[in-house]
Design a protein that fits this description.
binds NADP nicotinamide-adenine-dinucleotide phosphate, alpha/beta, Rossmann fold, 241 residues
Length: 241
């Protein structure tokens, strides 16, 4: 029987590439979107190899509804990819409490609450893989992103502590910190910002979502069973911290 993998924010960008790669690797993939239409589109795209659900990580009642529906519909997932994330950029001097809170709630608090609900199933199965998608910004910092940098740095600390808690159960917890990857998030940058960004990347190109997905596939595998608590950079040399 195929193991179930859950990928949050799977309707587009890096999450969609991860979902497609995991399906190709033989998993049944549950993917989330913030809307019914996005969830339905995901189901159609997976053509029987996966199913879409609605999830808003900034809303505890949405997390509860998702985990309840998942329990009713599927075996306990053994792979959880916490991919969904948002930005609401502003200089710290001007950042509104709502901008700070939205990013911390979605990118950090929501990840904790969702992950907690998966632990029991993984413990019972004596196997689990939790993979958190962080960002180079969590280590490097970036002007205008104090909320995002704080959430991603927090996510990396969460990864280390949870990795230590779950290692003896054969559950690994790792993070991936991408640099600039070609998605809607980077498309939103102005041409001037994009040129400046490329000048800073030694590989002189953006990363592709599939390159991040390949690393997720490896960390999900049996072969990666002795790697835990790590944050692995994938950034074309932008930051070698
Ligand atoms: P994206 O193209 O903007 O897609 C974001 C995904 O997250 C979508 O599926 C979206 O669903 C979902 N989402 C948005 N708000 C949500 C919420 N409140 N609750 C649950 N899901 C939500 O993002 P991406 O560029 O692929 O980034 C994916 C991850 O990689 C993020 O954690 C991001 O921080 C990280 N990352 C990206 C880059 C990059 O260069 N792109 C670099 C470093 C790290 P809808 O389609 O329904 O809106």
């Amino acid at each position: 029987m195929r193991a179930t993998a859950v990928v949050t924010g799977a309707s587009r960008g890096i999450g969609l590439a991860i979902a497609e790669t995991l399906v190709h690797a033989g998993y049944y993939v549950v993917g989330t979107a913030t809307t019914e239409a996005g969830a339905e589109q995901f189901s159609q795209r997976m053509a029987g190899q996966g199913q879409g659900y609605v999830l808003n990580l900034g809303d505890q009642s949405s997390i509860d509804a998702f985990t309840t529906a998942l329990k009713a519909d599927h075996d306990a997932p053994l792979i959880l990819v916490n991919n969904a994330g948002i930005t609401q950029d502003n200089l710290a001097m001007r950042m509104k409490p709502a901008e700070w809170n939205a990013v911390i709630n979605t990118n950090l608090n929501g990840v904790f609450h969702l992950t907690q609900s998966f632990m029991r199933g993984m413990m019972k199965a004596k196997f689990g893989r939790i993979i958190n998608i962080s960002s180079v910004v969590g280590r490097m910092g970036n002007p205008g992103q104090v909320n995002y940098a704080a959430a991603k740095a927090g996510l990396e600390g969460f990864t280390r502590a949870l990795g230590a808690e779950l290692a003896s159960r054969n559950i690994t917890v790792n993070a991936i910190a991408p640099g600039f990857i070609a998605t809607d998030m980077t498309d939103a940058l102005s041409p001037d910002q994009q040129t400046k960004m490329l000048e800073r990347i030694p590989a002189a190109r953006l990363g592709q979502p599939k390159e991040v997905a390949a690393l997720v596939q490896f960390l999900s595998s049996d072969a990666a069973g002795y790697i835990t608590g790590e944050t692995i950079a994938i950034n074309g040399g932008l930051y070698m911290g």
